[in-house]
Amino acid sequence: MLEKYLILSAILFSIGTLGVLIRRNAIVMFMCIELMLNAVNLTFIALSKHLGNIDGQVFVFFVMTVAAAEAAVGLALMIAFFKNRESIDVEDINMMKW
Asked: CATH no. for residue 40?
C-alpha cells in the first residue's frame, strides 16, 4: 500500500509544479502551491504509518501551520494588489518594481 500513496503523492506534486510553472493567475498559483504542500504531507503520513513512528505526523502539523500562514499572507497581498491594479495577473506584478 505504501507504493500507491507515494505514487499518488508524486502525481499531486507534479500537477502542482506544472500549475505553478504554466499558470499566470496568482490565485491558481497559490492553490497549486497548497497542492504541492498537501502532496508532501501525504508522503509524510504514509511513511510515518509505514515506519510505525509519529515523527512524520508531527512534521505534518508544522507544515500545515506554515501553509495556513502562507495562505493568509498571500491572500492579503493579492487583495492589496487587486485594489491597486484591478488584476491579479502575475505579469502585472513586475510593474511594482522601482
From this structure: 1.10.287.3510
Query: What is the pTM (predicted TM-score) of this model?
Result: 0.81
User: Which range of residues forms the domain containing residue 29?
Assistant: 2-89
* Cell 511594482 belongs to residue: 96
Q: Is the pLDDT of residue 24 over 90?
A: no
Q: Does residue 8 belong to any structural domain of this protein? A: yes
Express the helix, strand and coil content of the chain in percent, nearest 5 each.
85, 0, 10
Cell numbers for 16: 502542482
Asked, for residue 29, whether it belongs to a domain, the answer is: yes
The string of pLDDT tens digits covering residues 60-74 is 999 999 889 988 898
